[in-house]
C-alpha cells in the first residue's frame, strides 16, 4: 500500500506498506527460474529498487507489517547492518539510501535469531496502560477541523467513557476474535469523523455513545455458551445513564436520529417496499432482506467506507456475513459508478499467482 505524508520539515514522505507473510520468500525477494534461468523479480526487491530510483531525497519509508519468521527475515541481515544492501540471488545489490528507512512492525521476536536481534533497533510500544490509544485520540482531535468547543466536548467524552469501558470489557467479556484497545478506539474515531463531517450534530454524546457501543461491543457474540453481547448491553445500560436506552431489547437495536437527537429503531431507516423491487428472474441470493441486523451492519460499513476505513464482519457460520456484504456492494455499485466489486473465494490453495490471474 502506497501512501503520502509530510514530516516535520514539510518534506513529502513516501510510505509503502507491505505484509511479508502474504507471499512466499521467492515471491518476496525474487527467484531464478530453473527452467529458463531467467530472473523473476520479487515484490520487495521491485519496491525497494523503485523507491531508490526516485530522483529526489525526500524521506522514503518501507514498512514490513507482518509476523516475523526466519524464512524471510534472514535475507534482511545485509540490509540491517552497516552495508545497507539487499543482496539478491541474481547477484544484484540494491542499496538502502540515507533518506530511505525500513521499519518492521511485528508482534514479537519469538522466532528472531540473534543475528536479527543484534541488528535491529527495537522499540516496544505497550498499550496495556492506555498511552497508545490516548496518544492517537489526542492526535486525531488536533488534526480535525472542529471548533474549540467541539474539540473540548470530544476530549471530555473520551475521558468519560473509554478507559472505564475498555477496562471492564477486557476483564469481563470475550470478543469473537481478539482485539487490541487502539483498534477499537480508531474505529470510534473514524465513525465519529464521518458522522460529524456529514451532519449537523447537536447532541454529540448520543453519537459518541453509539460509536462506543458498536466499535467496542459490536464484536461480541455468544461464545462458549456465554451471551457476551447481551451482557455488554446490560452493563452499558446500568453503567452509563446519561443516554438512556429503552428497556426493550439491547443497545444494539437502536440508532441515533441525529436531527432530533434521540434513539430510534433501526427499522425506521429502511422504508423501501422490498416486494416491489424483486425481480423473480434473478436468484434469491441477489437480494438482501432488510432486518435489524442487515440494516445496522450495512449502515456501519457504509460509514467506514465513506472515509476509506476498512470494516470487517465477524460472527459464527450462517449468520449472513457474506450476504450482507454482497448486498452492500451491489447497492454501492448501482448508485455510484466509482465503485466496482470483485468477489474472490479463498481457500488453502489460493496464492499470489492465482490472485493475479483472477484480477486480470
Amino acid at each position: 500500500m502506497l501512501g503520502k505524508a509530510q514530516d516535520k520539515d514539510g518534506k513529502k514522505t513516501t510510505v509503502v506498506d507491505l505484509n511479508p507473510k502474504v507471499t512466499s520468500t521467492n515471491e518476496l525477494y525474487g527467484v531464478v527460474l530453473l527452467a529458463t534461468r531467467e530472473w523473476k523479480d520479487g515484490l520487495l526487491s521491485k519496491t525497494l529498487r523503485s523507491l531508490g530510483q526516485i530522483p529526489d531525497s525526500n524521506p522514503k519509508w518501507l514498512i514490513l507489517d507482518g509476523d516475523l519468521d526466519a524464512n524471510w527475515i534472514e535475507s534482511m541481515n545485509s540490509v540491517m547492518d552497516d552495508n545497507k544492501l539487499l543482496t539478491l540471488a541474481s547477484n544484484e545489490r540494491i542499496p538502502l539510501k540515507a533518506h530511505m528507512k525500513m521499519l518492521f512492525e511485528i508482534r514479537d521476536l519469538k522466532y528472531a535469531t540473534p543475528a536479527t536481534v543484534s541488528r535491529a533497533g527495537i522499540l516496544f510500544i505497550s498499550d496495556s496502560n492506555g498511552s497508545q490509544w490516548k496518544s492517537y485520540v489526542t492526535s486525531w482531535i488536533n488534526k480535525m477541523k472542529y471548533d474549540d468547543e467541539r474539540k473540548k466536548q470530544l476530549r471530555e467524552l473520551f475521558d468519560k467513557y473509554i478507559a472505564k469501558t475498555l477496562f471492564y470489557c477486557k476483564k469481563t467479556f470475550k470478543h469473537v476474535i481478539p482485539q487490541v484497545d487502539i483498534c477499537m478506539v480508531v474505529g470510534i474515531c473514524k465513525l465519529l469523523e464521518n458522522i460529524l463531517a456529514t451532519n449537523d450534530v447537536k447532541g454529540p454524546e448520543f453519537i459518541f455513545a453509539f460509536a462506543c457501543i458498536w466499535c467496542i461491543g459490536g464484536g461480541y457474540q455468544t461464545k462458549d455458551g456465554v451471551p457476551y453481547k447481551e451482557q455488554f448491553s446490560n452493563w452499558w445500560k446500568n453503567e452509563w445513564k446519561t443516554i438512556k436506552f429503552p428497556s426493550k431489547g439491547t443497545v444494539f437495536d437502536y440508532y441515533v436520529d441525529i436531527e432530533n437527537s434521540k434513539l430510534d429503531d433501526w427499522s425506521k431507516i429502511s422504508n423501501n417496499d422490498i416486494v416491489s423491487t424483486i425481480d423473480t428472474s434473478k436468484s434469491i441470493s441477489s437480494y438482501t432482506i432488510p432486518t435489524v441486523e442487515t440494516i445496522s451492519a450495512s449502515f456501519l460499513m457504509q460509514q467506514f467506507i465513506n472515509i476509506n476505513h476498512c470494516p470487517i464482519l465477524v460472527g459464527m457460520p450462517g449468520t449472513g456475513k457474506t450476504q450482507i456484504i454482497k448486498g452492500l456492494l451491489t447497492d454501492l455499485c448501482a448508485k455510484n459508478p466509482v465503485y466496482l466489486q470483485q468477489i474472490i473465494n479463498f481457500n488453502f490453495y489460493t496464492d499470489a499467482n492465482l490472485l493475479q490471474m483472477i484480477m486480470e
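Residues 61 and 236 are 42 Å apart (CA to CA). The chain has a mean pLDDT of 86.
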